[in-house]
Write a structure and sequence with these properties.
single chain, about 260 residues, mainly alpha, MetI-like fold, 2 domains, 12 helices
Length: about 260
């Protein structure tokens, strides 16, 4: 179920567009040679997906840390439910809400009323980034929260008893031991963002394309399945290289921090 669709897409990527659209059998590298025609979509995806993942991690880590180590059990349950609440509503409805907030009658109107001039937020990379962080933040919070919640608190107490300042305890003990949660959350968010379609389409207003938008156009509108398959194959290869490099860097960093903490 996982491999067969990838094989089909891989085979289609070497074919050609049929006379009436779709796929015509063949073997050619022309589709891969024309990937530059979708460079804008690849560029937006490769910039905003990592930036969005990083933004989610920066916001999610303090929140998860607060929930796991600074809140009582009774309040923790309520706060965790509040983190989940946005998932109870369709992403489509939530994106429409952000269209109003970032549109001409939302924040820009408030800024203009305060005398700071006019500003456009909707249909910009910033609007897409806001939608990404809002939509995917819970997927980053929970893996980090689980990693921190399972942390042996005696390690923190031992570090404090040995005279280690709170900041050094965090960098030498808490952060390295919670890196599996950060890595898991980052992978969840990054992989989903690489194929994102709805948020760029709605908050980007047709001006900020992701590869997902290009694939929808190629498969459903242009009906160029061969070229769309080549774009999909290129996206999968980019994801494999990026995820592999990230995981190796994360393991190396966590191992280095663990060695330092033991010293």
């Amino acid at each position: 179920m996982l491999v067969l669709p990838l094989i089909v897409v891989f085979v289609f990527s070497f074919g050609a567009r049929g006379p009436a659209g779709g796929y015509a059998p063949g073997f050619s590298l022309e589709n891969f040679m024309n990937l530059g025609a979708r460079w804008a979509a690849f560029k937006n995806t490769m910039v905003l997906a990592p930036v969005g993942t990083l933004a989610c991690a920066v916001i999610a880590y303090p929140l998860a840390y607060f929930l796991a180590l600074r809140v009582s059990a009774k309040r923790r349950t309520l706060l965790l439910i509040l983190v989940i609440v946005p998932f109870w509503t369709s992403i489509l409805i939530r994106s429409y809400a952000w269209i109003f907030i970032l549109g001409g009658k939302g924040i820009p109107a408030l800024i203009a009323w305060m005398g700071f001039g006019s500003i456009q937020l909707i249909n910009t990379p910033f609007a897409v980034l806001v939608g990404i962080v809002y939509g995917y933040l819970p997927l980053m919070v929970f893996p980090i929260y689980v990693s921190l919640e399972q942390l042996d608190k005696r390690l923190l107490e031992a570090s404090a008893d040995l005279g280690c300042p709170p900041g050094r305890t965090f960098l030498s003990v808490t952060l390295p031991l919670s890196m599996p949660g950060v890595a898991t959350g980052s992978m969840l968010v990054f992989i989903l963002l690489m194929g994102e379609f709805l948020i760029p389409a709605m908050l980007g207003g047709g001006k900020v394309f992701f590869v997902g938008n290009a694939l929808v156009d190629l498969f459903l509108q242009s009906r160029n399945w061969a070229f769309g398959s080549a774009v999909a194959v290129a996206l999968v290869l980019i994801m494999l290289v990026t995820v592999t490099a990230y995981m190796r860097a994360t393991r190396r960093w966590a191992g280095g921090r663990a060695d330092v903490s033991l010293m």
